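lol ok so funny story. i was supposed to be doing the assay writeup but got distracted and ended up predicting the structure for this chain instead. priorities right. anyway since i did it might as well share w the group, maybe its usefull for someone
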Amino acid sequence: MNTQYMQHEQGKLAYTDYGGTGDLVIMLPGMGALRQEYRFLGPELVKAGYHAVSVDLRGQGESSLGWSAYDIPSVANDTLALIQHLGADSAHLIGTSFSPGSIVWAAVEAPEKIKSVVLIGAFVRDPQTNPIMKAVMWLMMNNPWNVQAWRMFYPSMFPTQKPDDFDDYLDQLIASLKPKGRIEPVKQFANTSRKPSETRLIQVKCPILVVMGTADPDFPDPIAEANYIVEQTGGQLLLIDKAGHYPQSEMPETTNPAIIEFLQTVAG
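and the output, tada:
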């Protein structure tokens, strides 16, 4: 897929348009990840009759550097701007890890533009990180070898299995982080408060699907965290047995059909 760009405020956002002519579905990756995180889900959404688009977060992947903020409200505003840029009145939003916080913000800020939300391995409140993982993350972000540390750490997010193209994806990810200044947005996303989304959870009115891998190492108790979000939002729960932080690429054969079924239920 060719990279396309949207000029927005202080920079450019890179996105992949998988095609399709139905309802727009925008997919946002996690902190320190690429839009190719959705390389398995995007084509399946098109087959199911949706217009599927994945976007690099500001400062990540092929999106530009130099933004004044790397936080939940700014990414939410980027997402709302992308809906308009793509000529749609509204969209379904799917996000992993950091980006669900911005999706929650957007759903409350502009409810008329958000049809539904899918929150995968969602960090939507402070602080629910596994203490060991929190220490590891701090060390990775605060040493001269942080990019190499990220390469060593990232495979742990796939505790049960890795996709066949995992090494290729990881090479692309590390290459995107090596240029000067590219690790800084990851640090800022890691350190920004999740309070803006935590306080808005109960205000989300659109249909919600909460997806969590039961072996997600980022949470002390991933099932309890998923249940908390469901209780706050009234959303549906999808647990992916033995999956880690990225079930849509670790176990796409289980996760992605369930996401599509949710979207079809919303449309119905």
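The chain has a mean pLDDT of 93. The radius of gyration is 17 Å.
back to the writeup now i swear
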